[in-house]
Amino acid sequence: MQAGLSANEPENPPASVIVEPIARPFLSFQKLAKVTTEIVHNGKFSCMHVSGGLMAVGFESGATVVFDMSQRIRCMCKASSSRVTCLSISHDATYLAVGHASGDIYLYDMFQASVPARHVPPVDPAIVSSGKGEGHFASVAIIQLKFVGARKTAIISTDADGLCFYHSLGRILGMASHDTLRVYGRYNATDPSHIYDAAPLPLGTLRHAADEHQFVALILRHKLLIIGLKPSARTWFRSRASSNSETASLAWFPATHAFSQVYPPMLAFSFGNELRVLRVSSVRVKSRTPGDENTSGMKMSEEHLSTTAHPIVQLHWIHRQLLLVVTTVSWQLFDFRCHSFTEWQPHDPLVASVTPGDPIFLQIWRSKVFMFAHNTAYAGDFVAWDSYLSQLESDHEYLEALREAVKLYQGTGLGSGIGLPSLRHDQRAVIAQRIECIERKALRLLSDSDDVELIRLCTQVAVEMNNFDLLFGEIYFSYEYHDKVDVFVLELERHIIHGQIRTPPTAVIQRLLEYRCRTHEYAIIEQLILHVDPFCLDLDQVLPICNEQCLWDALSFVYERVFHDYVTPIAQILKRLAQTPTQNTLADSSHQTVLIEDSCSDNDSRASFYAIFPILNARLRGLRYPSMEAFEHNEAVNVVRAVQSLLFSKHACKAPDLADVPTLDHNIFPYLRAILNFDAEPFLDVLDLAFESDFFTNEKLPLLSRRDVIDTLLEVNRMKSLPNSVHHLLAMFVARNSAKYPQFIILSDSECETIFDALTNDEVHNKDSEFALECLLSAHPIAFTEKRIKMLERAGFWRIYETALRKTKRYPELLCFFLQDRDGEHHSPGQLYDRVSEIFVLPGLKGSSQRESMFSLFLSCLNDIPDPLLCDVARIVTRYFASRGNEVLTHLQITPNRQFLYLKAFFILKHDIQGRNPQTLRRVWITRLCEECPSLLVPQLDAYGYEYFDLEHVCSEASTHHVYDALFWALDRRGLTTLAMDQLDKLAMDLAQHTHQVLDDGVDDRADSEAESSREGVCKRFKKLHLALTMAFRLCVENSLSSSASVEFVHELWFRVLYTLVRLEHAFYDSSRIHAPKDSLLALALSHSQTFTQEALATLVTSVPSETISFAELFKRLVHGISQANIMYSQVRVIVEAMLLAYRLRCDVLMIGVRLNESDALHLFQQLAKERGMGWFVAATRPSCAHCDKAFMDLSCVRKHASSDKVALTPQGHTFHAGCGDAVEIM
Q1: What average pLDDT does range 621-647 have in this prediction?
Q2: Which residues contact 483 (CB under 8 A, 6 or more apart)?
Q3: Which residues form the Vacuolar protein sorting-associated protein 8 central domain (predicted)?
Q4: pLDDT at 1126 over 80
Q5: Do residue 463 and residue 321 come from a single domain?
Q6: Same domain for 216 and 164
Q7: pLDDT interval class at 1203 (50, 70, 90)
Q8: Cα gap 974→442, rounded to integer Å
Q9: Helix (H) or strand (E) holding 986
């Protein structure tokens, strides 16, 4: 038995992730020559059975031959010439049961096989009918035959009629005494259920409670039955298929014992392509009677396993964790360890090609597969997991073998791991040994193979297995022997940087660093140092490289992990800062600048000095660098103290691994000033983060507190050697932190004044500076003097400036500040008014006299107020300076547009407005409307009414600025509607004359800018005429609906409008240009004139009652007028057609009214409401057509109507053929 196929292995819990099955030939067959020869000698093969080391083969001739595993004949049995249909070998391999197509069952003792030991003959139907016996009928083939339990004379059988029997074969006084029990099925059933398989529970390696019940499993196409024969026959369990299937199968696995654990029996079964499992376990049942012992009960639980793509025909257990599933097209392995299919392969075409009438018999015994097909016997073995690796090795394809081995180690191509232990840990150990063997074989051909790919695979293997002994041992020495170390170390580099190899040998990392030094790739060197255990580094090699190439992160890492020195790397950077030329020379002329001679350029060197800030960020917070992990508390305190001692030292000091750290000059705090001179902003950001840690708070610790650091910074800030930008940044830092930690940082008045001066001396407005000053003032208030207010104004700190003006009660300046919008806060209308209102509600400005004193200032600031905020100015004037409104209006007169925006707030389009505005304001408003926004004039007139404005002034301004719609409105309200019509006629004729002048200038023949301007001018005139006509239509409609206007006057108005339009169209009708292009100016003018006429007629027809206007009289006047003006009828045809259409529409409406009056409308509406409430319905009659009275399935009607298969249903419940429904009127 192979190791991987052993059932005595502990199970793993089911995996939660479904494994994708891999395609792999896991079965390998060989022909059994001796058995095949014997089969050919005995005739055609019919069935087989393998068990107990024996192989029984049945033939069509009725003979049965038993072979052992060496293919030697054990015995031959033949008691009938009927075809052998099924075979079974007993548990102890001493008895053989043979079923025949005749219905006979023979039991042979294989040590005396010449004569049957027992015989179960077919039963006579008369005996069955009389109830005196049970059994199979004659000529009904036995399909399944199995031994039950350990007894040699207890068998179960099924036949082709769907009957299942249990036979207990015995002898009494030398005479046969058989007891037969019908387990399932009916005699002479009209539709017998085919029993696909029947199997009793086999004996396992230990006794189980289920053995006492002698369970038998029967599977049909639609259900599974578990029947217990003891103590009395009954059904214990049923399971139904999801749907009827053409295939079904089952296979028992008995109870086993392994590794001190008991595994209960399992039954795998399938319906079609659905695979399930039934687990049988015993439970303790508490006795109901006191004093009696507890009994055992049986528990059966079903589980759905998976679904295959093709129907399942056979199931065979390989061991408890692996099930062979045979479908119609493939063999598949279901692994219970991962609860999914793991491997599959198609049927072997040479062995198992399925042909009709030539079935395949397959059985597994002790992990060996036996198959009989095409009258040939085969024995198969499960292919081990490394068979493909062995094949590649034999072909010397070691690189491909390594690739496949890595996949197997990772589990991606392993499948069920046949031949491997069950536990994943043990599997990896076996595969790892196999990989090492392949690697050693590949090293022998290193000179002839791809050395880069080989080391890549070997490194991948070492990383996967986390075992680098072979990699850094034999493999490294082989590459060194072949002078390929550079290839070896370059492949390791990628894994080192990714953190997969932390402890390479020192020699390997030396060679790798040497190679990168030769290629001048120092960034990679730094990454290598950071990702390697520092104790694997050659410090004599690493430290000089880090110092010379400014690899400060790597240097800090090495000093921290190896020497526990946290100051020397910072001191080295400070030393370079002192020695590298900067923008400023040394303060003391007696000292000369010392230059560093290294391979770094000045720019690269200065850029690398920025590494000091992340290092300080970690050290001042008690963290490791660069991992940013926390030290233990005591160690963290030591780290912070050491860095503080160096950084905030008043004088030059020594580092642990250096002599005196050089300084720029002999002034105090040399190192702090050096960093501030280099770049103060990131350093102060570091201090901001450090202040948030506990190391600057706890006074019990021997560390500098926040107050100590602030005092130091203030002392440095008083020194004149620092640039102004540094002074400013220091002031911002102190100001922000004074508000952030007010209980720890308390500043004196002089310090606050110094910081105030530093922040407000900034030449450019800086929001950060303003915020810092706000922080300072929130924690340390100061008095706002005249000088300080000027400084705030100069710096542009408007929020603080506004607060200062409020506190010092400088209201005029505050008002000017708001009106000029110096802080840019007036983003939308209403905000200026709100801010000014806040001033006038203050106690000192509540009186009107006090406000009047500020009017001159208010007036002087008007020119600085943005245009969108002039509406706020109007609100301010109305509320606070109501008596000075004329002065404001006069002041804005020089800018008409701003005056218009100002007045707009006084005239709002609402119907509930009271006329409180003075007449002067109204006249100016009308003038500005005509100039700035003519389209708003008519809505204003409608909103306020004709009595509100001076109509004569309106007419004058509208006429001056050519606002004709407003002019007509005002003339009508003055009772001069006829004059308005005269103005309309004059406007239309002037437009026609101007258009002809432009056409005479040849505007359609030119494409220059002047011609385009002329065309645009004509279009604008048409737009003005359209507005005038719209107002004329409105006035006509209003007079038509007015009770005070006479009919003759209304007729006259409509006639004037229509006659003007006819004359306009006639003016553009020019026979010489009748064929002008559609985009010409003449075509455009004709189109506009016709559109105007259509709008006039639409308004007349839809808005004027028929009794008010007589179309006949109006048409008569138009015809008389056009006849005198030599206008052709075709030009007024549109008017005639519109009138006729109106008459037709009114006639239709009258006819509808008459029909409704003549009919009972109330009854009709009630009937329609009732039908709508009921919905559509089908009458409860025979299903026939309401037209042809033929049934819907009548073939004659089908031939008559091609579409008679479709039915039409009406709301009234009538049904028609689709063809018939077209021939009738369906209501």
Answers
A1: 93
A2: none
A3: 487-691
A4: no
A5: no
A6: no
A7: very low
A8: 114
A9: helix 977-1000
The C-alpha atoms of residue 1227 and residue 1211 are separated, in whole angstroms, by: 8
β-strand 1207-1209 against 1215-1217: which pairing, if any?
Answer: antiparallel
Amino acid at position 1151, single letter: M
Q: Looking at this protein, which amino acid is placed at residue 129?
A: S
Structural domain includes residue 903: no
Least confident stretch, 57-61, 978-982, 1045-1049 = 1045-1049
Any idea how long the chain is? Answer: 1227
Evaluate whether 503 touches 525 at the Cβ level (below 8 Å). Answer: no
Under 8 Å CB-to-CB from 1220, ≥6 apart: which residues?
1185, 1186, 1187, 1188, 1201, 1204
For residue 607, the tally of other CB atoms under 10 A from its CB is 12
d(C-alpha 196, C-alpha 477), whole Å: 65
* Residue 96 maps to a domain: yes
Count of domains forming the chain = 6
| Bond into 290 cis (ω within 30) | no
Phi, then psi, of 145 in degrees rounded to 5 = -150, 120
DSSP assignment, residue 355?
A: B
**Amino acid (1-letter code) at residue 909:** L
Q: Which parts of 592-693 fold into alpha helices (H)?
A: 602-608, 612-619, 633-647, 670-691
Measured at the CA of 512, the angle between CA 511 and CA 515, to 5 degrees, comes to 85
For 155-180, write each residue's pLDDT tens digit.
999 999 999 999 998 877 666 678 89
Q: Which residue bears the tokens 């490194």?
A: 459
Q: What angle do CA 1000, 1004, 1005 make, to 5 degrees?
A: 95
Domain that holds residue 219: 194-285+294-346
The pLDDT confidence band at residue 551, using thresholds 50, 70 and 90, is: very high
What's the pLDDT tens digit per position in 746-785?
A: 899 899 999 998 888 866 567 889 999 999 999 988 888 9
**pTM (2 d.p.):** 0.63
Range 669-695 average pLDDT: 92
Tell me what percent of the residues of the chain surpass a pLDDT of 70: 84
Q: Which amino acid, 15? A: A
- Cα(275)–Cα(340) distance, rounded to whole angstroms? 11
Residue 939 included in any domain: no
Q: What is the pLDDT of residue 1001?
A: 79
pLDDT bucket at 593, cuts 50 / 70 / 90: very low
Domain shared by 708 and 731, yes or no: no
How far apart CA 869 and CA 21 sit, in angstroms, is: 76
Query: For tokens 């359209």, what's the residue?
Result: 1026
What is the residue whose two structure tokens read 């400070």? 574
| Residue partners of 1195: CB distance under 8 A and separation at least 6 | none
Instruction: Annotate 88-117 with b (16+ C-beta within 10 A) or e (fewer).
Output: bbbbeeebbbbbbbbbbbbbbbbeebeebb
**Rg, Å, the chain Cα set:** 55
Same domain, 685 and 752: no
DSSP string, 1073-1100: GTT--TTSHHHHHHHHHHHHHHHHHHHH
Same domain, 220 and 139: no
Instruction: Return the residue matching tokens 């189109």.
Output: 1087
In a domain, 1187, yes or no: no
Both structure tokens of 352: 């198992």
Mean pLDDT of the chain: 83
- Tell me which of 412-416, 609-613, 643-647, 783-787 is least confident: 412-416
Q: Which of 1216, 1227, 1213, 1221 is nearest to 1179 (CA)?
A: 1213
At residue 739, the pLDDT reads 92
Handedness of CA 334, 337, 340, 342 (dihedral sign): negative
Q: Are residues 689 and 633 in the same domain?
A: yes
Residue type, 192: P
CATH number of domain containing 208:
2.130.10.10
